Amino acid sequence: MSRTISRRKFLETTSTLTAGAILASCAPSITSRPKFDLIIKNGAVIDGTGAAEFSADIGVRDGIIQAVEKLDTLDAARIIDAAGLKVVPGFIDIHSHTDGSVLYNPTADSKLRQGVTTEVGGQDGDSLAPMSDEAYQRCISKRDPKDCPFKTFDEVFSAIEKRGSAQNMVSFVGLGSVREKIVGEDDRPATKEEMELMKREVLAAIEQGCVGASTGLEYTPGSFATADELAEIMKVIPEPYRLYASHMRNEDNFLLEAIDEAIRIARNSGSRLQVSHLKAQYKVNWYKQELALRMLEEALAEGIETHTDRYPYIAYSTGLANLFPLWSRDGGTEKFMARLKDKSVLQKIRPETERKIRGLGSWDAVMLSSLSKEGNKKYAGKTIQQITAENGADPFEFCVELMIQENGSIGMVGFGMNEEGTELCLKWKNTMVCSDGGAYTPNSTSNPHPRTYGTFPRVISYYQKERKLCSLPEMIKKMTSMPAEKLRLKNRGTLAAGNAADIVLFDYNTIKDNATFINPHQFPTGIPYVIVNGGLAVEKNEITGKLPGKVLRSGNLSI
Fold this sequence. Notes:
Blueprint lengths: L6 H20 L9 E10 L8 E8 L2 E6 L6 E6 L4 E4 L1 E3 L15 H4 L3 E6 L11 H10 L10 H11 L4 E4 L1 E2 H8 L9 H17 L4 E4 L10 H9 L7 E5 L7 H15 L2 E4 L12 H15 L3 E5 L4 E5 L13 H9 L1 H18 L5 E5 L13 H8 L3 H11 L5 E5 L3 H9 L3 E3 L17 H16 L5 H8 L1 H7 L15 E4 L22 E4 L2 E5 L2 E2 L16
Parallel strand pairs: 1-4, 1-5, 6-7, 7-8, 9-10, 10-11, 11-12, 12-13, 13-17
Antiparallel strand pairs: 1-2, 2-3, 5-18, 14-16, 15-16, 18-19, 19-20, 20-21
Helix pairs in contact: 5-6, 7-8, 8-9, 15-16
């Protein structure tokens, strides 16, 4: 072979090499990307599985945990020294109402500062979709129309994704919302045609991203559904998402009967059961808390996957309308208001309402939490007993007049449970921690339940550290891997390589809830960092304003 090269070829080759050398010398130096976006060093890791804590570093890249081990490298865009801090998975609020506010409070301040990285909405039978035309008009009358694009879950989820959120969002479909759209607000059985339409609505919601279905059987119109109706609807949901979460029909005098109904619905539909905020209300019923848990144990033994959730307080939060008998609320708000204005009907309503008050103990057990009329906002944070003692009014008549003024929409807190029952429930092996609350900012004019600010730190600081209901790893499991498994979230709930980087750092010595019933708008202490999908949502006790959250939809729960 000839070793010679033509002059023309030589010039072409050398010209190309020279040009390349010149371009290389003129180009800026390229700095390689760090191995990790974030390294959390020197922390005490509690991985969410219930296992004992261990020392390790955590390396995060592209929103995913890449390593949970002692790392020799410091090659990271950001390093957090977690010496003296516990490093745990982000808390999953398995029963939340933050979906109602995330569109106009995307940082979900009061929940984010607690360490909640995933919110599970659509609870108590009430979800943002599907929405009837009547409900859509009611929404527009109360909010900016841009906050009411909710006729389908596709619209809901797309709106959240477009505006952004600091947390991950998951939703159930509310069977009360479905019934309201198809059947209306009247107390009557659904027709065959309506049953088929409700099934289609539920299937559509699952296909669009919901992970289960919920009921609110103390609220209208969901309360008008029979156990057979609910079981038949649940049957159509594909097995991976056939999760039945129920605010039961009763949580006081007929608690055990309500639990029996919930178990029966799960059994007859092949559903996995989640009893919402399990509690025994009224002193006369407190002994039933243990019996209720025994019934859930029996359901487990039968082969029904059974869990409950509970918030760590002895007071519940609901609408003041719930003190009035169910029959008086039949047909919706307009008919309810008409009955309250009819003195002959009111004579029948009074004894049933006062019977509930006797169960609570007195009107001093009913504290108003939210009112919309400017002249009535002064009552927030006060009990009915306190208010009527000041103005000399009859408590029942005062409540009726207030309900009429507020068109039936008043928030209340009821002091109906005891500490022993609360501890029994939180300690049970299959109880998950929930807030049952929405998200607020400190400048809010409402007076919400303190659980909206303090649930998760309170469970750790009071019920685990002080009351010693269980070990810290066990309590963390109730807030992380247990709800993740219940929801079939594949890559969340534990700190492991390959999982989403939802991480909370807290100081076990100082973590504490500060919210009270009188002054609920107080952030907890001792939770300096909250990381969502690798993004710093809370840094050095301050909300960063970043929105790294995602909508986690059925069929794509591993993102």
